[in-house]
């Protein structure tokens, strides 16, 4: 869609002659004077949708609920984490010193996104076991229903030493491009 829109803006008949490289819009390899930021702003004003949606349907998975037999998953994902903590039993305090995580996610599609998912899961898990505490009254009404009275981890809560390693030799034959699940 963006190449077709760029071709229209440049009065070019064939969208396949348009390329986008280093935030520049090229026609047959030559700069056009149109840059990426200007193009997407014009596309936005013209109500050209630039997002795409898709899904991946894993093949060869099945499960018979009555027989409780089948192959319900295309692959399994495993991981482990080691959390080093210093406890001060006298003062009732703790410090999370370091975290080491190894995760089997196949061939990453985007390592930065996968790293963010893993670190986000770490923050959520640390919050569950340290600061988060659901409080209810005698009628079952949730009392800790706002950030003012329900402490979730923030960036300052996370340890300085977080090491994440992806297992690199565990491609999935059934996942898209050899990837597995993360997040």
* Distance, first to last CA: 30 Å
Shape call: extended
Poorly predicted sequence stretches spanning 5 or more consecutive residues: none
**Helix share, percent:** 10-25%
Q: Which class do the helix and strand fractions yield?
A: alpha+beta
**Total beta strands:** 8
CATH topology descriptor of the largest domain: Aldehyde Oxidoreductase, domain 4
| Number of domain units | 2
Q: So how many helices?
A: 3
CATH architecture of the largest domain: 2-Layer Sandwich
Characterize the main sheet: 3 strands, antiparallel
Write out the strand line-up for the largest beta sheet, numbering strands in chain order. 1-2-3
Oligomer: single chain
CATH superfamily of the largest domain: Aldehyde oxidase/xanthine dehydrogenase, molybdopterin binding domain
Average pLDDT works out at 90
The CATH class of the largest domain is Alpha Beta
| Helix-strand topology string | HEEEHEEEEHE
